[in-house]
Amino acid sequence: MSVAVFFLLAVNSVQSWAFGVDGHRITVTIAENHLSNKTAAALAQISGGKPLAELALWPDQIRGAQKWSHTKPWHYINIKDQQRFADLRRSPKGDVLSALNESYKQLKDPRTGKQQRREALGFFLHLAGDIHQPLHVGRYSDLGGNRISIKWLGQKKRRNLHWVWDTGLIKSDGLDVNQYSALIDRSTPEQRRNWQNDSFLDWAKESKRLRAQVYEFGQPARKGPITIDQNYIDRTKPLLQKRLLMAGIRLAGCLNRIFDSEHSTLKE
Length: 268
Prior knowledge:
Blueprint: H1 6-12, H2 21-32, H3 37-47, H4 52-55, H5 58-61, E1 77-78, H6 96-108, H7 114-130, E2 137-138, E3 149-152, E4 158-160, H8 161-171, H9 177-184, H10 189-196, H11 200-214, E5 226-228, H12 230-259
Parallel strand pairs: 1-2, 3-5
Antiparallel strand pairs: 3-4
């Protein structure tokens, strides 16, 4: 399956997305607001003029295909609460950190072929979003919140905690992608400089630190599904919005460094 067919999949696929369809589109839309003209032109050439926000969805759309099944572990990394990344035994199948590094290197390498470069761009756009979602730097015990059953605002349908952070919190505002992006795309030059000087490992460490806030439900522990109420949404939504913003700003910084020589080298 080639990148050229991902637009058909975007229309027909109904699978569940990592960081949600809107989450990835928001991240890329913010990134596009901070690209240099030279970088934007280079990316348009790589993507064949197709929207970057749609290319960012492609890595989720092809995970079910046999050719791409090996990429499933690339969307996350599991680590215990008290464990350090330096002590972590990394999966030989890869994880979000190794996949980010590899796709970044492929984009930088002038020897990378046209098709491979487009695929690398799709993965880089996507995984830069995933790693900023705290549950994509998840706990082994509940598979990044996937095993934690929740009731969303009293609805009968059972969800899981991972869905809350991929999709539910974003959808709760009732805004479209452009409206949401415009709402949260507010940062100072100093913030942008600081965020863009962080490494991929720094991104992962941040998500791990923030993970504790995801599990603060404000209710006694009990058996059965956890109720996600409006108090939880109001408390955690600013955190999610900041992670989306940081992902977009950092994504733009990385791409500018690759495709515009006026930008400095990314800290590795």
